[in-house]
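User: Sequence recovery, please. Input:
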């Protein structure tokens, strides 16, 4: 490995560590509280984003299912071809877009509004169309991406993932979700074995 490569590798750890530490300054208790309340009470949860944000939104949908909050990732492409039929009045849609202007998401906002679906937007741009259309806006702080061109979706995905992890941790507390409940739906793997042996 070239010395420059080793330095880039170690710098990536430092950049992302610093980003997570800095994110604490952007936690809005009121907005996060509203988001947790919506997620804790919604019959169904949709998540939607493009590119790297979309990949992390798939992770968020799975996180919600793991605590028995029915959720699915709705592809932006499929959303405008019927997939938003999953969402009904009283449900919640989470949009993730660092810039808050992702054009593929804007028509889906209109569908959610028409159906009475609450919107949570995670974005760095608090004045963006997706932010202004939302019922709840969560700030996505990003110091810089880890690549030397500051262009790849690296630190930004870590920041988004951290917000989703924090939301899941809070929803677990808010709903009183128990390990025994998770053991029932997760019998597989080392985690399932540990939880189910403990339950016995």
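Assistant: Recovered sequence (200 residues):
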């Amino acid at each position: 490995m070239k010395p420059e490569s080793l330095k880039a590798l170690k710098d990536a750890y430092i950049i992302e560590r610093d980003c997570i530490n800095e994110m604490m300054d952007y936690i809005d208790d009121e907005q996060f509280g509203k988001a947790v309340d919506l997620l804790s009470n919604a019959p169904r949860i949709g998540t939607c984003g493009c590119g790297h944000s979309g990949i992390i939104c798939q992770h968020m949908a799975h996180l919600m299912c793991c605590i028995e909050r029915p959720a699915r990732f709705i592809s932006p492409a499929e959303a405008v071809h019927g997939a938003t039929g999953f969402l009904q009045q009283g449900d919640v849609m989470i949009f993730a877009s660092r810039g808050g202007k992702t054009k593929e998401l804007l028509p889906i906002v209109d569908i959610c509004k028409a159906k009475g679906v609450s919107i949570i937007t995670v974005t760095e741009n608090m004045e963006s169309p997706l932010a202004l259309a939302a019922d709840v806006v969560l700030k996505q702080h990003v110091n810089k991406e880890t690549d030397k061109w500051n262009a790849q979706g690296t630190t930004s995905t870590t920041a988004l993932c951290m917000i989703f992890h924090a939301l899941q941790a809070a929803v677990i507390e808010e709903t009183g979700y128990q390990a025994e409940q998770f053991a029932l739906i997760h019998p597989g793997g080392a985690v399932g074995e540990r939880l189910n042996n403990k339950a016995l």
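The CA atoms of residues 53 and 96 lie 6 Å apart.
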